[in-house]
Amino acid sequence: MSSTTHCFFSDIRFFYETEVDSPLLANTVELSYDLLDPPTIIYPQEGATDIPTEGLVVLFEAPEGTEAILLELEDEEEEVALKVDLPADASSFEVPNKWLQPGIEYTLDIKVIAENGNQTVRDNRFMTAE
């Protein structure tokens, strides 16, 4: 059995956790509220309904200060997701052929990660052509 307590003081977060037959664990972390601007998704556009299932190249722009990019493409109904780590200077990703299925709504998330570890995400939904 364990117990965790979280305390917040301004921008400092303190927590400690104890478990039966274990020593007290404690740590202090300074939080940063410096967030990157959200990325811009150029293609596919929000609400598009005729996106091809093959040859799709996702186009986006990451803001200055991006250290890494995480792209996620999800079919939430089937609970299937493609997750790809991209370098900070990436501006496109080619979705593997045969991954997208016809007539399905997908959610595209582009998450940019700052040097301080903070993450900013932009998402959109689109539907593939029948």
Describe, in short, the structure shown.
By secondary structure, the protein is mostly beta strands. The chain has strands spanning about 1-10, 10-20, 25-30, 40-45, 55-60, 65-75, 80-85, 90-95, 105-115, 120-125.
What does this structure look like?
The protein has 2 domains: 1-31, no CATH class; 40-127, Immunoglobulins (Immunoglobulin-like), CATH 2.60.40.10. Helix content is 0%, strand content 55%. It contains no helices and 10 strands. The strands form 3 sheets. A 4-stranded antiparallel beta sheet has the order 7-6-9-10, with no helix packed on it.
Name the helix and strand elements from N-terminus to C-terminus, one letter apiece: EEEEEEEEEE
The CATH architecture of the largest domain can be given as Sandwich
Can you count the beta strands?
A: 10
CATH class division of the largest domain: Mainly Beta
Major sheet summary line: 4 strands, antiparallel
Share of β-strand residues: over 45%
| Chain-averaged pLDDT | 85
Side by side, the strands of the main sheet go 7-6-9-10
How much helical structure, as a percent, in the residues? Answer: under 10%
- End-to-end Cα distance, whole Å, is 52 Å
Count of individual helical segments: 0
Shape, per Cα inertia axes? globular
Q: Pick out the low-confidence regions.
A: 1-10
Overall number of structural domains: 2
CATH superfamily of the largest domain: Immunoglobulins
